[in-house]
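Fold this sequence, please.
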Amino acid sequence: MDENASEEDLPDLVPVGAWPSLGEAQEHALVVLAMNRECWIFPAAGQYAVLAPPAEVPVIHREFALYESEQSERQVRVEPPVFPAGIELALVWALSLLVVFWWQGQDLSVVDRFCNSSKALVEGGEWWRAFTSLFLHADAGHLLSNIGIGGIFCVMVAHTVGAWRGWALILGGGMLGNLVNAWARYPNDFASIGASTATFAAVGVLTGVATLRAWRLHSLRELRPLMVPLLTGLIVLGWYGSGGEGPDAARTDVAGHVAGWTGGFLLGAAVQKFERTKSTAAV
């Protein structure tokens, strides 16, 4: 790019664009130079034109179109809102788990009546067990790990999509995971309890929302907010979600965790897609 050359010293050139300021012309000339092509800038009718050999015009125009599209997306992009943490709902959830755990100690039949059960669900049509089992726990350690670790993810979901909607997605994803897990285990006599399916559904919601945002904006940068929940989820899975070895390995429901994550991912992506459709219609 030579801004001081005269038109007589140059080969046959044609304009590929003109801009009102020299800065804008130079910006587009840099786009051409990044393509390893030559170009020149000349004043023309009160504007600054970028000139190039005729054979380069089609490919330069395509590159300009892509560049303008990227710039437009950056200008109109609206940062996703950050909602309140919904601590009140998280406390209600924790209190509910504690109350149900106390009830389990008072009535030993509670687990059999409300656990997730493949035969009861398929043969008896007791689909509600997929929901009620999320409130049951095997022991105090199981309960406290789900309140502590699960609470972190649930607050993150509330920050991302709102507290009420977030909890609906978490419980819905957990219930969906339990339904799929029980149906897949049938005709085996399978039963499961615990809020960990909902915990992994929360991780799935975060993943689904971030993935769809990145897809919509064609930018992997949108996946950066996903790194913390995703890496933490992998750590949690390694701690108590993947089975492994030890006395608790046999009772760890890995399939339920994967099903909960998948259910949360699908619901999170669907909500993000709906938000995009609604905002587009409003415009």
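The chain has two domains: 7-76, 87-282. The chain has a mean pLDDT of 82.
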